[in-house]
Design a protein that fits this description.
By secondary structure, the protein is mostly helical. It is built from six helices and no strands.
Length: 201
Amino acid sequence: MRSDQTAVPVSYAVPSAIGGVRPGSSPHGGPGQGRAAGPVLAAATIAMGLMAGLFFAFDVSVMPGLAAGDDRTYVTAMQHINKSIENGMFGLVFVGAFAATGVAAWLQHKAGRRQAALWAAAATVLYVVALMVTMGVNIPLNNQLAAAGDPSQITDFAGVRAKFEGTWVATNMLRTLLCTAGLAALTRSLVLHGRFGRGGR
């Protein structure tokens, strides 16, 4: 080394030697993505929990309560419930749970949190299956019930109920299990996200 050259401190040379990554920073994604990863994951967890809770409420209270009533009451009540649930708040949570969970998995991956990303991705898959069950079974059954017409015009309440009740109740239980499993997966992802933030892997 020539006498007029200045020695470079090791603390500055090491980051350059490994690609210019500063200690404590992630080689994946920008700082904005890293900051957003936690809040988005938390939002996804809340949305998934709300969906699991909604389906669970039907399993343990709404459907058993209606099952105890007569056929006319059952059909009329379910028609009203299916119509009432078509509102902006439900739509926001229903779609938001999917969007937030998928984005959360992507952000965790971009931030280099592989295990947290895998758990969030698993939650996304579980919710997609729940969506497929909803679109493929529950919504068509809801439409079929609505197509039966105004209760004042229905003559065979028992027949309308029989075509709806058993399948709808069973698939709703499946949706509850899928969303609850998704909630557990997102909770695990949150734990791993926190550990990573404290310096763990």
